[in-house]
Structure formats: structure tokens, C-alpha cells
Design goal:
It is built from 16 helices and 16 strands. By secondary structure, it is α/β, with parallel strands linked by helices. It folds into three domains: 121 residues, Rossmann fold (3-Layer(aba) Sandwich); 125 residues, Beta-Lactamase; 159 residues, Alpha-Beta Plaits (2-Layer Sandwich), CATH 3.30.70. A five-stranded parallel β-sheet has the order 2-1-3-6-7, with helices on both faces. The chain has a five-stranded antiparallel β-sheet with strand order 10-9-8-12-11, with helices on both faces. Helix 1 links the parallel strand 1 and strand 2. Helix 5 packs parallel to helix 9. The longest helix has 64 residues. It starts with 8 loop residues before the first strand and ends in a 19-residue tail after the last helix.
């Protein structure tokens, strides 16, 4: 069964004879026209169903209050209409010129030829309209495809933007692998990333019983309060501790927060890094898992780089060996000395670092554990790993650490050691670092003459000056009390 709708024709002609003649023309085309002899019936008949073609007698263009020009389909220019007139009614045709039509059909000329000519124009218009609709459908489909391509392109552009942002972030951190430690690399890295509004982190304390937030000098860094865990995290930061840390970070830093879990030697994370972004879109679209994976590698890099003191049996001298070395430099080589040294012409220099303030702080806090071995291993190991100086060293109690360095490089060594010591986080090696944070623990660094007597005199002078500083100057009538030992109650 065909879905093609048969054409319909409506005739509004006053003369019945003319109406039948026109009707016969359409019948010859297998079309049965509807014939109306008044405007009112034509009006309502064509509103219900729009004809394919209408032939209207100009005599019936108006009727009472009705005017064909006001017909809804005529006003919408949707009704294909032609106008029939005779010489007698020709003046009435002028009133119909305001209506869009397909031409005039004259009673004085053969009707069949005129009607067929009009129908050709109607059919051509219908064909053009059909082609236009098909083109619109195709254009709509093409536009839909274009829209999909545009949306896909926009998504690709967005994905590429965040991929490039991630790439630049990784390159930023990669350029900081020569920093002294992981925390300096993180501080400088996030300082350079514009999309980072603020950041913070928690790490396990040395006894693995609390989470602590290190001191990082940056306007973007937000320090977090220490958290006691209630149990020892032998395998790293447990899941319950991660939740505790996240809740504190959210309370302190607010929304748009991403947490990155960084692993080291343990099976579970050792560091939780919190990053707050300025834009929620960055939070939702950046591939944080890649950044987390990279920062885990960077953290492991610094942990391995830090390590313990390497080859300490070759570089560390006992006090006896140290004084023998100084005598060889000052007095000249004797049998059994390893190096060829001429008296008074030594290629070495001495640099001493004094930890008196640190020792005083430890004595004044007898109930707070200090991780002695971890401190000295990290201090020497990290300095060596970050500065790459060649040196030997010796220790005199826990207060003095003396380095033997090449004389030609001593100025650079001295400045590097001073810079390193000022930034070294001594507070981290206390079990309760928040109690120590306000204290001045920075060591004193000095060059010392290269001789046994000079160095022994230097140590004695340091000891005397420290002891004198510890004894208060008495006021008149005030007795001097001895300094109490740290174990005295």
C-alpha cells in the first residue's frame, strides 16, 4: 500500500458551468476536485484539510465580513492558489494582488492550457520544497555529525590540556631531583604549579606511633596538627589513620582536596600528601594517579639517596686517627702514615660543626626521645648526597663534628655546609617535634687551624664558653647554684 498522499483540488467558482468545465480538466488528470460556490464553505473546508491546489474566482474573494486574504493558510502563504477572472470581473483582480498566488486564469483564453501551466509552477514549487526538506534533513544529520565531531574535538582538546598540564607538573618535579630532600622538592614544585592553591602532608614519625606534619617554608603550605595513632604502624600508615588524616586535612584546608598516598620501603603509605586546587575542573580531570605514582618514585629516590653513611669505615676517623692525621699535616709524615704530606704544607682544612644548642635542648627535655643514630646518619648522608663533596670526618662526643676537606674547596664546602645545616629539619628527630619547634637548634660552624693543639684548644674553649653561658651571673647577695644533671630529679 502506497504512503504517497493523492493530490486534492478545491474550486471556488461562482459560475457552475465554468466550475464543471474546470472540474472536467482535473478529472482528465484522475483528480476529483471539491467544488465550492461560496467563500464561507470554502473557508471551513480548506481549514480542515489544506488542498494541493485552489482555483478561486475573484468575484468570491470577499463575502460579507470574510476576505480570502485573512484565511489562516493564505496568511501563512501555505495555500497554493490561482485566481480566475473574466473581462467583466478583471477590476476585482486588483484586490487579490496582496495574496501570494501562482498567477491568473482568464475566462477569455483556453482554460486547459492555462491550468496546466499553473500546475507546472505548483509542481515545480512542490518539488523544490521537497528537495529543500530533504536537504534540511541531510543538513540536520550532517550538523548532528558536525556537532558530535566538535564535541569530540572539544573533549580531546580538554583531555590534551590536562595531559599537558600533568606533563608540565612531572617535568617540574623531575627538575628538582637534585634538591637536598623530598620536602624541599615538594615545596619548590608546588610553589611553581599555578593550579595548586595550597598543600600539606603527614608522615610517620620515627617510632611509627604518630603522624607529623613537617616544617616547610612556603605560603602555599598549611601545617597540620600531629596525630597520635594509638598503635605502632609497622607496615606504614594504616587505613584508619589515613581516614583520620583526611578528616583533619578537610577541616583545615577545605574542599577541592586530593590526597596522594606515597609508599617507601613499607607495604603501606609512609606519606600522605594533600593538594588543594584553585579550580574544581582540575580536581576532576587531572590524572592524579599518575602524579601519585611519580611522587612515590620521587620520594623513594630521596630515601635511597639519603640512606645511611656510605663507606663510613673509610671516611670516619676515630679521635686517635684524627689527631694522628693532624700531626702528620702539621709536623710531617712518619713511618706508617698513609699519605705523603710535607710538614706545614698540607692540602687540607678543618671545618667544625658544634651541636651545643641541640644537646642543651635534649638535656632540658629528658622525657622526650631523640633519635641519635638516625639523626647523625641522615645529617652526614644527606649532606654528602646533595652536595657531593669529598671529605673525612670525626666526632668528639655528640657536640662536635669535624670535617677534613680539600683546602682548595674549603670555602665552597663551608658555605654549602652552613646552608645545609640551616635548613636541616633537626626537630624531626624528636619524638614530640611540636614541643621543640620554637627552640633554636641551629649548629655553629667554624673553620679551625689544622693542628692537634689548635683543635684541642678550640674544643676546650667551646666547652668553657658553653659552661660559662650556662651559669647565671649572680646578683649581689645571690649564691651560685651548680647546673643540674639531666637525670637529676
Amino acid at each position: 500500500m502506497s504512503d504517497v498522499k493523492s493530490p486534492s483540488v478545491a474550486l471556488l467558482i461562482k459560475d457552475i458551468k465554468v466550475a464543471k468545465e474546470v472540474s472536467n480538466i482535473f478529472r482528465a488528470m484522475d483528480v476529483l476536485p471539491y467544488i465550492y460556490n461560496d467563500l464561507k464553505s470554502f473557508w471551513f473546508g480548506t481549514i480542515e484539510e489544506l488542498p494541493s491546489f485552489c482555483l478561486v474566482d475573484v468575484q468570491l474573494f470577499t463575502e460579507g465580513d470574510l476576505s480570502l486574504a485573512q484565511h489562516p493558510q493564505i496568511k501563512a502563504q501555505a495555500m497554493p492558489v490561482a485566481l480566475y477572472y473574466s473581462n467583466a470581473t478583471a477590476p476585482l483582480a486588483y484586490t487579490s494582488f496582496e495574496v501570494l498566488n501562482f498567477g491568473l486564469v482568464s475566462a477569455e483564453l483556453p482554460l486547459s492550457g492555462q491550468i496546466k501551466a499553473v500546475l507546472k509552477r505548483v509542481n515545480k514549487l512542490n518539488q523544490l520544497e521537497s528537495e529543500l526538506r530533504e536537504s534540511e534533513v541531510k543538513a540536520s544529520g550532517l550538523q548532528h555529525q558536525i556537532d558530535r565531531v566538535v564535541r569530540g574535538t572539544e573533549k580531546l582538546k580538554e583531555a590534551d590540556y590536562y595531559l599537558q598540564l600533568l606533563k608540565r607538573s612531572l617535568q617540574t618535579f623531575d627538575a628538582l631531583r637534585d634538591q637536598e630532600d623530598f620536602y624541599q622538592a615538594v615545596q619548590q614544585g608546588f610553589q611553581q604549579l599555578g593550579f595548586v592553591e595550597s598543600f600539606s602532608l603527614y608522615e610517620l614519625s620515627f617510632n611509627a606511633q604518630k603522624l607529623i606534619s613537617p616544617q616547610i617554608v612556603s605560603h602555599k603550605f598549611k601545617e597540620l596538627p600531629s596525630l597520635w595513632l594509638g598503635q605502632t604502624g609497622y607496615q606504614g600508615i594504616e587505613f584508619y589513620a589515613q581516614n583520620m588524616a583526611s578528616q583533619v586535612a578537610i577541616d583545615m584546608l577545605g574542599a577541592n582536596l586530593m590526597s596522594l598516598l606515597l609508599k617507601g620501603k613499607r607495604s603501606k603509605p609512609e606519606v600522605i600528601l594533600f593538594v588543594k586546587t584553585e579550580d574544581e575542573e582540575v580536581l576532576n580531570n587531572l590524572d592524579w594517579s599518575v602524579l601519585e605514582y611519580y611522587l612515590t618514585g620521587l620520594y623513594s629516590h630521596f630515601e635511597l639517596k639519603k640512606g645511611n653513611v656510605q663507606n663510613s669505615d673509610k671516611r670516619q676517623l676515630t679521635n686517635w686517627e684524627f689527631y694522628s692525621f693532624l700531626d702528620s699535616c702539621f709536623l710531617g709524615k712518619v713511618a706508617g702514615d698513609a699519605a705523603e704530606i710535607q710538614a706545614g704544607d698540607s692540602p687540607f682544612s678543618l671545618v667544625n660543626i658544634n651541636f651545643s644548642d641541640l644537646n642543651d635542648a635534649i638535656e632540658n627535655a629528658p622525657l622526650i626521645r631523640f633519635y641519635w643514630t638516625k639523626f647523625i646518619e641522615d645529617f652526614i648522608g644527606r649532606f654528602e648526597a646533595s652536595k657531593h663533596h669529598k671529605f673525612k670526618f670525626s666526632q668528639f662526643s655528640t657536640e662536635n663534628l669535624v670535617f677534613i676537606v680539600d683546602r682548595d674547596n674549603v670555602d665552597t664546602f663551608f658555605n654549602d655546609l652552613k646552608s645545609f645545616a640551616l635548613r636541616f629539619p633537626i626537630w624531626r628527630y624528636f619524638e614530640e617535634p611540636e614541643v621543640i619547634l620554637a627552640k633554636n637548634l641551629k649548629p655553629d660552624i667554624q673553620m679551625v687551624p689544622l693542628s692537634t693543639q689548635a683543635y684541642r684548644s678550640f674544643i676546650k674553649q667551646k666547652t668553657v664558653s658553653i659552661a660559662a653561658a650556662a651559669v647565671p651571673v649572680p646578683n649581689k647577695g645571690t649564691s651560685i647554684r651548680p647546673r643540674l644533671n639531666s637525670l637529676t630529679n
